[in-house]
Fold SFRICE002098.2.
Amino acid sequence: MFKPAIHGLFYLFCMMTLDCTTIFFLSLIKLLTDKLLLWNRALLLTQKNGCSREYSKEMFFTFEKILKCYGIVKDNYQRLIFFQIFEVFFQSLCNIKLLIDYSNDYINRTVADNQSSLPTFVFVWVVKRIVTQVFLSLVFDSFYEAEKNSYNSCLIVLSNNYDQKRLCKNVLRLHRASFSKLRICGMFYVDVCHLLCLIELLTNYTIVLLQFVF
């Protein structure tokens, strides 16, 4: 009877826990993105419908709470993303090395029968980790884009509507003081470019591994 190794089960449990935490984290960022889009829409509607001073205060407090929530999420999950990105990088390199060794053994006709499913398993695992990073980059890029749209909307309202001048000035000031892209341990930003850099690193080290084999 087949009995999986304890360390294998423990590793699988850790990876599943990490994936579930990542999904929850991305859901929070997606929720903040939706709230920011609604806030931006409400701000643009004030140009047509106008708003009272109390409504302007509520708009500012709402924007402030969105940025505070983003800061809390960013601080709490920064180490998690750091671990995940490096785990993806090193695990992908190990899987690529396994594929290279398997291909070399296949060429030399020394592949065992119980290793026939290894390429499929390794390929699926690598793709799964890369897809996770794709979603991570896209979700954060959507939030950055929503934040940029809110900033631009404030500039538009500020130039066209004198009644909302104080609100927009406060929002712009808060944006400059509080908002920044997620930067993992001061090393790199999490955005679309981070995914391209990760793929570039994997490609470069894959070429190095191929040079050792051939």
